[in-house]
Design a protein that fits this description.
Length: 324
C-alpha cells in the first residue's frame, strides 16, 4: 500500500507540471483505476494538491513541506549520497540511528532524516533544539578510505556543501565559523556534528550530522537561543521546501566529495576559506583546558585551525569554540 503510493507520488513528481494519465499509471504500477483514485485521495489528505482532469489525467500542483523518503527521492540528483533514505517522524537523535546502521554495514551515502528530534545532540554533550516540522535534522554515512587524522576535513567539506546549497536555494550569503557552524547575519543557522567509527588509525565511517533551522519562526526559539540563532525563513522572508534543500545539499556534497577522493583536500580548503568569517581576524579560542587570543591565520591541509598569539607563536587548534 505505502510502496504503491510512493511510486505513484514519484511518477507525478517526475512529471511536474504535466498530466500523467490514469492509463499510464495503471500500466506502470499494474493496478486498477479505482486503486489509483484511492491513493490520490490519500495523498490529498497528506497535503498534496493534485488536479484531476478527465481524459488528461493527474497533475501535482503543490506538495507539502515534508522530508519523507518519497519527497527527497523525487528531487534527488545524486548517484550515491541519499540513495538509501531512512525517514522517521520522531527520534531521539538521527546520529544514534546512523551509528547503529553504520555498524551493521549500511552503504555509503545512507541518509537518516527525522521530522523531529527529542534528544538532538551537539558537541561535548550539548543539546540541539530540533522542533517538529521546521528543520533539517539528518545524518549521512560516508566511508572514505582515509587515515583518522584527516577526518576533520569532512566536517569542512560538509560545511562548504551546505553553504553552497543554502545560497543557491535561498539567495542568502552564509558564512562559516570554524569548525562547524554556519551563520547568516552573524547568527547560527546550521551546526554540524561529525562522529567517527574507526579502528587503529583507519576510518570505517564518518557520520555527518547537520542540524539546519529552515522554517523555524522567531518565537519558536527559546530564551537561550533567541539572540544567537536564526533560521533561513527568518533571514530570507520565505518558506523553504526542506526536501529541496536536502536534495541540493546532497548534490553539492557529492560533487565536493568526488573531487576530494580523487584530488585531495585542496578545492574544499580553498572554498572553505572563501566562506569563512574568521580568517585574518582576531578571535578568542576556548578549548577544554585553556583560552587563547590571537589572529586566525587559516586552516592546515588536515583542516586544523592555526592561531597566532600576540607573541607570534602558532597554535594548532583541533577542537574548540571560538569567539570573534
Ligand atoms: C553543534 O554543536 O552545533 C552540532 C549540532 C548538530 C545537530 C545535528 S541535528 C541532526 C544530527 N543529529 C543529532 O543528534 N545531532 C545532529 P555545538 O557546536 O556543540 O553547538 C551546540 C549549541 O548550539 C547549544 O549549546 C546551543 O547553544 C546552540 N543551539 C542548540 N540548538 C540550536 C539550534 N536549533 N539553532 C542554533 N543554535 C542551537
Amino acid at each position: 500500500e505505502g510502496k504503491m503510493r510512493q511510486h505513484l507520488l514519484q511518477m507525478l513528481m517526475n512529471n511536474e507540471g504535466e498530466y500523467v494519465s490514469g492509463q499510464q499509471i495503471s500500466d506502470k504500477l499494474s493496478c486498477s483505476r479505482t486503486a489509483i483514485w484511492k491513493h490520490i485521495e490519500e495523498l490529498r489528505k497528506e497535503g498534496y494538491v493534485i488536479e484531476a482532469v478527465p481524459r488528461k489525467g493527474y497533475r501535482i500542483q503543490s506538495a507539502p513541506d515534508r522530508v519523507t523518503a518519497a519527497e527527497i527521492n523525487a528531487r534527488l540528483k545524486t548517484e550515491v549520497l541519499g540513495r538509501t533514505i531512512v525517514y522517521e517522524e520522531s527520534v531521539k537523535s538521527t546520529q544514534e540511528i546512523a551509528q547503529r546502521l553504520s555498524q551493521s554495514g549500511a552503504y555509503e551515502g545512507t541518509l537518516v532524516v527525522a521530522d523531529e528530534q527529542t534528544g538532538g545532540r551537539g558537541r561535548l554533550g550539548r543539546q540541539w533544539q530540533s522542533p517538529k516540522g521546521t528543520g533539517v535534522w539528518m545524518s549521512l554515512i560516508l566511508r572514505p578510505d582515509i587515515p583518522l587524522q584527516k577526518a576533520p576535513q569532512l566536517t569542512l567539506l560538509a560545511a562548504v556543501g551546505i553553504t553552497k546549497a543554502i545560497s543557491k536555494v535561498t539567495g542568502l550569503r552564509p558564512e562559516i565559523k570554524w569548525p562547524n557552524d554556519i551563520l547568516v547575519n552573524g547568527k547560527k543557522v546550521v551546526g554540524i556534528l561529525t562522529e567517527l567509527q574507526a579502528e587503529s588509525d583507519r576510518v570505517h565511517a564518518v557520520i555527518i550530522g547537520p542540524g539546519i533551522n529552515v522554517n523555524v519562526g522567531r518565537d519558536d526559539f527559546n530564551d537561550e537561543l533567541k539572540d544567537i540563532a536564526t533560521s533561513l525563513k527568518i533571514e530570507s522572508g520565505k518558506e523553504i521546501k526542506r526536501a529541496e534543500l536536502i536534495s541540493s545539499i546532497l548534490k553539492e556534497m557529492e560533487e565536493l566529495y568526488h573531487d576530494y577522493l580523487n584530488n585531495g583536500f585542496a578545492l574544499v580548503k580553498l572554498m572553505w576559506e572563501s566562506y569563512a568569517n574568521s580568517i585574518g581576524r582576531r578571535i578568542r579560542v576556548r578549548t577544554l583546558n585553556q583560552q587563547i587570543e590571537g589572529i586566525a591565520k587559516g586552516i592546515t591541509d588536515d583542516g586544523i585551525l592555526l592561531l597566532e598569539d600576540d607573541e607570534g607563536n602558532i597554535h594548532p587548534i583541533y577542537s574548540a569554540d571560538i569567539e570573534i
